Amino acid sequence: MFERMAIDCWLADMDGVLMHEGHPVPGAPEFVAALHASHKRFLVLTNNSIYTPRDLRARLLAAGLELPEEAIWTSALATANFLDTQSPGGSAFVIGEAGLTTALHQIGYVLTDRNPDFVVLGETRTYSFSAITTAIRLVDKGSRFVATNPDTVGPTPEGPLPACGAVAALITKATGVEPYFIGKPNPLMMRSALNRVEAHSESTAMVGDRMDTDIVSGIEAGLSTVLVLSGVTRREDIPRFPYRPSLVVNSIADLVDQV
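Above: the chain's sequence. Below: its structure in token form.
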């Protein structure tokens, strides 16, 4: 399957790979079962910072996918990990929901709007104009600007919803300050995931449905990469990119026998 060496750790994106519009992708339960049976290390990754791993576990379980909390890695957790290495025990003004605030509390951060070390922007279904105004003023005063992920829109049953990247652009336009995005396609997300499971890049595969986030971040982190065609990127889109995945398959079902 892969040219370099056997895969003993699997990283898999959530939406478009294992789940689609709240339902498991065909083959996803079998893939997860194969991971459990093989006792190989694995993590499910998501750029969504709204939910805690416990929340996501419950949502996945309701869809028929049984994953432990520790097997879920979010952009919120990766952001907290980054801030803990940059400024341990620091402070932040946060725009986001429980997934992000819980992750920051767990590393000992104080959440405040009084001269915080960082302004941290995450995902929320209810972006507040007042909170965005506060963020702009704090960034103007010198707080460092970090965002969980660069996604500009998020899917909902009613249609696209402005996401973290779009709101970050608003703050940047008002301040002239660009945020540091932690989530995919930043390979930092992958490296923090590898550290989480104590895996090596040479023997790890990243499975994703997007060339511009999952695959490029996997390549830049030195992983083998598998593009599944069950999500965003279509087969005819692949030649438009200057890089290629290690493997292209129709869906996660095609990987069950490879675990």
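The helical segments are 28-38, 53-62, 75-86, 98-106, 129-141, 164-175, 187-197, 211-220.
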